[in-house]
Design brief:
Elements (H helix, E strand, L loop, with lengths): L7 H18 L8 E6 L14 H10 L4 E3 L7 E3 L2 E7 L4 E6 L13 H14 L6 H9 L13 H7 E4 L2 E5 L7 H5 L9 H6 L10 H4 L8 H4 L7 E6 L3 E6 L12 E6 L3 H10 L4 E2 L4 H8 L5 E7 L4 E5 L28 H10 L2 H8 L29 H10 L4 H5 L1 E8 L3 H17 L3 E8 L1 H9 L5 E6 L7 H8 L6 H4 L4 H11 L4 H17 L3 E3 L5 E6 L2 E2 L25 E2 L1
Parallel strand pairs: 1-10, 1-11, 14-15, 14-16
Antiparallel strand pairs: 2-3, 4-5, 5-7, 6-7, 8-9, 9-10, 12-18, 13-16, 13-17, 19-20
Family: Belongs to the bacterial solute-binding protein 5 family.
Protein name: Extracellular solute-binding protein
GO molecular function: peptide transmembrane transporter activity
Length: about 575
């Protein structure tokens, strides 16, 4: 999909969608019948089995439901959802879930244990690289890999790991995992309608066909096109510009107050802000803190909540094994491109880290809020050592490192690098422009080309190791530091294809943290990992960024008491589910 300024046709389509939303507000239950959300990004998938980004997750968590969920604003306390209770046994190696009666899927099919069994087996079988099923597989099979990459995985192992005992769902783990329940609260572990899934062409759930489903790309799967969950909202339609959902009349719990939800893709920030100020959008991807404070705060009909907890970590990757020959230019250190292993040189990485002006980024993008970070771990999490100094912006150090890089060839010959950021992301564009300006100021032979791309394209390219440098980040799947540290720094972690590095010492430390319940020892190890990762300059670290969210002041159900940053929707909106919102 091409990125950049939208065509006139797209602009007209967006206007039509906005007018349609306004008309919908006057239908059904009156002026408060429609919630309109405008965002810059597309929605990669609606299949929980491969949902692993916030754009998809914010939809999935409202159409589907998990066995359990976070209670209120807590990051650690869990409460039942599709389960009514659970029991742990065998030293933490067995969990038995009693499931809720009287629950229907959007097709009208009754929710049964067989649906949960199918869901988790499907997640273990497919375990695509663009899903969160690696951490489910770690818990239930003892490996993050799927059966294509780990031949020890058999159907018997999968079938034994999750099965129904009557209408009781039973998980059997190879060893205790204290984070297992938190993992089940992740939106990607939502229960799907197995009868519906099989009917529309998904895996049939049998031993005879499981091998063919291993690692299958589910992004555009039949279930993504035609979802059926138990959530308070059911899917109506989706096209390239909008998604529409409607309150599910047969929902088992408290009924949603707002009848319709429309998620619109509106690439231009100015257009989103204008719609918001007119009251044609209730929530928007509002840009940076500076944008919000200058353009929205204090305006009629606008409410703002500030200083929301930041539990995400963002950085720029420097891929040491770039697998995209078409983006390398000459592919050599001759001033006309870069080799695929350009970032494998420590001095190159150190130069890029030193050239990123974090203080200016905080001032320009975050309105002065936030602090430099020393590690890709939120400073609100255990394991983050606030006494460890963060990398410093230092152009003299960057110059010295570039002069030593690749035995002096980088400084002598120069380079051309293609770096990527999410299209229409003001923060991403600003960060890349700051880096580009500083690096190019050091040597006229240095050139950094920055390229906006659609989020779905970035996800696909990065997963295949095709991006040289990209701004990306992580929001926790479950509230434990391992979810960040192993994800970013392990040679088996989710980010390994995106960074191309393996550090045996860090791998050893990570394994040690996973095998000790001693919190003090774990924190010591995380400090060691942070120190080594910083010395090796594996990432360009973005600062912390306390949340600020504007919303229309007639939107109810949004408060710090209910705001939970573990919910995907917190990125652009309320940190709660649509069903909890209303209109005054």
């Amino acid at each position: 999909m091409k990125s950049g300024i939208p065509t006139r046709a797209l602009a007209l389509a967006t206007l039509a969608l906005t007018l349609a939303a306004c008309n919908n507000r006057n239908a059904d239950s009156g002026a408060g019948s429609t919630l309109v959300v405008q965002e810059a990004s597309d929605i990669p998938t609606l299949d929980p089995g491969t949902s692993y980004d916030t754009g998809s997750g914010q939809i999935v968590e409202n159409l589907y439901e998990t066995l359990l969920t976070y209670k209120g604003s807590s990051l650690s306390e869990l409460e039942p959802l599709l389960a009514t209770k659970w029991e742990m046994g065998n030293g933490g190696r067995e969990y038995r879930f009693t499931l809720r009666d009287g629950v229907k899927f959007h097709t009208g099919n009754a929710f049964k244990c067989a649906d949960a069994e199918y869901t988790f087996r499907r997640n273990l079988v497919t375990n695509t690289s663009q899903s969160g099923n690696w951490f489910l597989s770690e818990s239930l099979l003892g490996t993050a890999s799927n059966a294509n990459d780990d031949k020890s995985i058999t159907w018997a192992k999968i079938a034994d790991a999750v099965k129904c005992d009557g209408e009781t769902l039973v998980f059997t783990l190879p060893k205790a995992d204290p984070a297992f329940l938190s993992k089940l609260a992740y939106a990607g572990q939502s229960v799907v309608d197995s009868e519906h899934a099989k009917k529309i062409g998904e895996w049939d759930g049998t031993e005879a066909t499981w091998k063919a489903a291993v690692g299958k790309d589910l992004t555009g799967s039949p279930l993504s096109q035609d979802p059926s969950g138990t959530g308070a909202y059911r899917f109506l339609k989706k096209d390239s510009n909008a998604l529409t959902a409607q309150a599910f009349d047969d929902y088992w719990g408290d009924k949603a107050q707002i009848k319709n939800v429309i998620i619109q893709k509106v690439p231009e920030l100015a257009a989103r802000q204008q719609a918001f100020l007119r009251g044609d959008a209730d929530l928007i991807e509002a840009g940076t803190r500076a944008n919000i404070e200058e353009q929205l705060k204090g305006k009629p009909g606008v409410a703002v909540v500030d200083n929301l907890p930041d539990i995400s970590a963002f950085g720029m990757t420097m891929n040491q094994n770039i697998k995209a020959k078409d983006s390398l230019g000459s592919g050599k250190l001759d001033g006309k491109g870069i080799p695929a292993n350009f970032f494998s040189d420590l001095n190159v990485r150190r130069a890029f880290v030193s050239a990123f002006d974090v203080p200016t980024y905080i001032k320009q993008v975050q309105g002065g809020a936030g602090q430099p970070r020393n590690f890709l771990l939120p400073d609100t999490f255990p394991g983050y050592d606030k006494d460890l100094a963060a990398p410093k912006f230092d152009l003299a150090a960057a110059k010295a490192a570039f002069q030593q890089a690749w035995g002096g060839q980088v400084w002598q010959n120069g380079f051309i690098l293609n770096a990527t950021y999410r299209a229409n992301s003001v923060a991403g564009q600003t960060a890349m422009e700051l880096l580009k300006k500083n690096i190019e100021s050091l040597n006229p032979k240095f050139r950094v080309n920055i390229q906006p791309k659609q989020w779905s394209e970035i996800l696909d390219n990065a997963d295949k190791g095709r991006e040289a440098m990209v701004i990306t980040g992580w929001s926790p799947d479950y509230a434990d530091p391992d979810n960040f540290v192993s994800t970013f720094y392990s040679s088996k972690g989710f980010y390994h294809p995106r960074t191309g590095f393996a550090d045996p010492q860090i791998d050893t430390w990570i394994e040690e943290t996973r095998n000790t319940a001693d919190a003090e020892r774990r924190n010591q190890i995380y400090t060691q990992i942070a120190q080594r990762a910083q010395d090796q300059a594996y990432f360009i670290l973005m600062p912390s960024n306390p949340g600020i969210r504007p919303y229309r002041d007639n939107l109810t159900g949004f408060s710090l008491d209910t705001y939970n940053p573990m919910r995907s929707f917190s990125n652009f909106g309320t940190g709660t589910l649509w069903k909890a919102l209303g209109k005054s």
